[in-house]
Amino acid sequence: MELRQIEYFIAVAEELHFGRAAKRLQMTQPPLSQQILQLEKELGVMLFERSKRHVELTNAGKVFLQESLHALTQLEQAKAAAQRAQMGMLGRLVLGFVGSATFDILPNLVRAFQDQYPYVDLVLHEMPTPMQIEAFRRKDIDIGFVRTPVVDRLLSLLSVHQETCIAVVPKLHPLAQRSSVSMGDLSAERFILVEREVWPSWYDDIVTKCREAGFSPIIRQNVKEIQTVVGLVAAGLGISIVPSSTANLHARDVAYVNIEGNAPRVDMSIAWRTDNNSPIVKQFLETAVRLTGCDFTQNS
């Protein structure tokens, strides 16, 4: 059975006249009649009751017409879906992201992408940068929001956000009343930091900046998430240094204070496998470029 036979059958079933159906199909009547006879033979049923003056669908023909129309509709939908997928407008995109990306760049970018490509199924997994690199190697994720620097020949990077760090202190801490502090002002404080294996470059930068200010930080607690850092600071267990976007996390009982001079910095990049030619990945990256103003010359 061929698609054209189905189309011929539908034309005859709707016209109930072989001559009009042939004209509609821009063909002559004899080959149309032969195609319908062949279709009936393949199906093993009579689709039409025929006479010299009358053509009528049989019960089998009525059922076959309903199913044929449904099949053509499904086929058109499949065709449209394939075309949308080719253009990166349909499919599945798996994103990895560090938790701090939710304070700034991630929500805006995901919203913009979903508005433009509503038929793409976005699946998000929160994981630190080192875990994302492993997930890329296993091809478990397509896009990653990572903290740089990241050195991996497998990956390309687009830098999308840079920010300085600020101090977060308990609300009743003496430093909470200051408009800014120096790194040296933190020398006697106990630090709560995101552990090094989660964010090695940032951890090392904080420790380096402390030493440049003349002290080694007293580390009271290492945790896995920035939200946990802020929560423990709110509990009065210590102070911390966090990305400035963390101030968007309106936690009670803490104050955010600017750091003077050479404060630690953090960078956010979008990562993807260099060999991933998915049109959906391309569309996501183009959305990121449009939203952030960055460009692909920043790839590594």
TrEMBL record:
Keywords annotated in UniProt: DNA-binding, Transcription, Transcription regulation
Domain HTH lysR-type per the UniProt entry, residue ranges: 1-58
PROSITE patterns: HTH_LYSR
Gene Ontology terms for molecular function: DNA binding
Pfam family, one: LysR_substrate
InterPro entries: LysR_HTH_N, LysR_subst-bd, WH-like_DNA-bd_sf, WH_DNA-bd_sf
CDD domains linked to this entry: PBP2_LTTR_aromatics_like
Family of the protein in this entry: Belongs to the LysR transcriptional regulatory family.
Protein name (record): DNA-binding transcriptional LysR family regulator
Originating organism: Paenibacillus aceris
